[in-house]
Write a structure and sequence with these properties.
Layout lengths: L3 H7 L2 H11 L6 H31 L2 H26 L7 H30 L2 H95 L7 H6 L17 H5 L48 E2 L28 E2 L37 E6 L3 E6 L6
Helix pairs in contact: 1-5, 2-3, 2-5, 3-4, 3-6, 4-5
């Protein structure tokens, strides 16, 4: 069973170990300092709380120990003040180590005062029953706090485990979405290729139709003015000559000039070629956009921390043996080093849009056409030959 002497002598052990570990850190070990300072604050606050709740009320009842409570409370308040200053101070500051040394000095002086002055007074003034009751209450308080800390640690581990599961689930969903997007892009690419092939086939078909139409127009334009076909004569405006009238044909032009007409009126059609312009699509160039993958070097800085075990020898606070002595005892402390973990994700950097834009231009087509003209000769036996020109107006 723990006695009040053992309780007062062994209670500061963990706090001293945390102070030693914290003093051995460098200005670069920010995360380690934050963690150790948090543990130290919890330990010192627990010691002060248990003393103030269970030990000091009993000591105030005895005249021999009443004055010692005030000094102990002052030490606790000074410790809280220094802890608050360290907590607000940047952990990489040059002032951190001196302030920590001040806290360590105040705490160790308080421990020495308790062992030198407070403990003898307690043993003299407090009965064994009261001392045992104080020890029981303090140990019960420690057990409750440790249980709460274990529950809190377990809750944190559960939350971290849940966060990891959520992160893994999110990563799986992201990979699945990327796979769906890849398949969608592949399907869109295949569809685009099919559209391009269909467009090329349609363009070739249109080109052949246009070429055939152009050849038909060319044949029609170079055909004789009278083809003998009712359809083409009507199409080119060469139909409508009254039946039974004498019309000159290209084959017997000389005979028509000397043919005598017995009608009161003759109609001579004057034909003219018309320029028929068609159009067809030709390939004026091909634009190819090819996506390919290149590898470029990149770098990113990451802050890593190393934890090394520091072993030092120092003079004990007191020469009294505490805990087990003259027995074999082994302590193992693991050194840790952080290493970078690299993963890669994919995101869309930019988009390249390939499309056709239609523009309009006006082009002038120049060629020569043929048309009929007329020459009129009037033969008069008395006045000789006289030539007149027929006025012609184009529509």
């Amino acid at each position: 069973m723990t006695t009040i002497r053992q309780l007062i002598q062994t209670s500061p052990t963990k706090a001293n170990e945390l102070l030693t570990a914290l003093a051995g850190t460098s200005n670069n070990a920010v995360k380690t300092r934050e963690r150790l300072l948090e543990d130290l604050k919890s330990e010192l606050e627990l010691l002060a709380k248990l003393e103030e709740e269970h030990l000091f009320p009993v000591l105030r009842k005895h005249k021999e120990t009443k004055d010692l409570v005030t000094a102990a409370l002052d030490d606790n308040n000074q410790t809280r003040k220094l802890l608050a200053e360290l907590e607000q101070m940047p952990k990489s500051s040059e002032e951190f180590a001196p302030k920590l040394a001040e806290l360590r000095k105040v705490f160790q002086q308080s421990v020495r005062d308790e062992r030198k002055d407070l403990l003898p007074a307690v043993l003299k003034a407090v009965s064994d029953e009261e001392a045992q009751a104080i020890v029981a209450k303090i140990e019960d308080g420690k057990a409750e706090v440790e249980e709460a800390q274990r529950a809190e640690a377990e809750q944190r581990r559960a939350e971290q485990r849940h966060e990891r599961e959520q992160a893994e689930k999110l990563l799986a969903e992201q990979n699945e979405a990327e796979e769906r997007e890849r398949k969608t892009r592949e399907a869109a690419r295949r569809t685009a290729d099919e559209v391009v092939r269909t467009t090329e086939v349609a363009a070739e078909s249109t080109r052949k139709v246009a070429q055939s139409a152009a050849e038909t127009v060319q044949r029609a334009a170079t055909a004789p003015l009278s083809t003998g076909s009712l359809f083409f004569d009507v199409m080119f405006g060469m139909w409508g000559v009254p039946s039974g009238r004498s019309v000159a044909r290209p084959g017997n032009a000389a005979a028509s000039r000397i043919q005598q007409s017995s009608h009161d009126e003759e109609v001579i059609p004057l034909a003219e070629e018309t320029l028929i312009v068609g159009k067809h699509t030709v390939n004026s160039g091909t634009t190819t956009v090819r996506r390919y993958v290149v590898e470029v070097p990149t770098e990113q800085q990451v802050t890593l921390y190393d934890e090394k075990v520091v072993v030092e020898r120092r003079k004990p606070v007191t020469d009294a043996a505490t805990g087990e002595a003259l027995t074999e005892f082994t302590v193992e402390m693991v050194e840790t080093s952080e290493v970078p973990l690299v993963a890669k994700g994919v995101k869309v950097r930019e988009e390249v849009v390939v499309r056709r834009e239609r523009t309009k231009r006006v082009e002038t087509v120049r060629d020569t056409i043929r048309r009929d003209e007329v020459e009129i000769s009037n033969v008069n036996e008395r006045s000789g030959t006289r030539r007149a020109a027929l006025a012609y107006s184009r529509r």
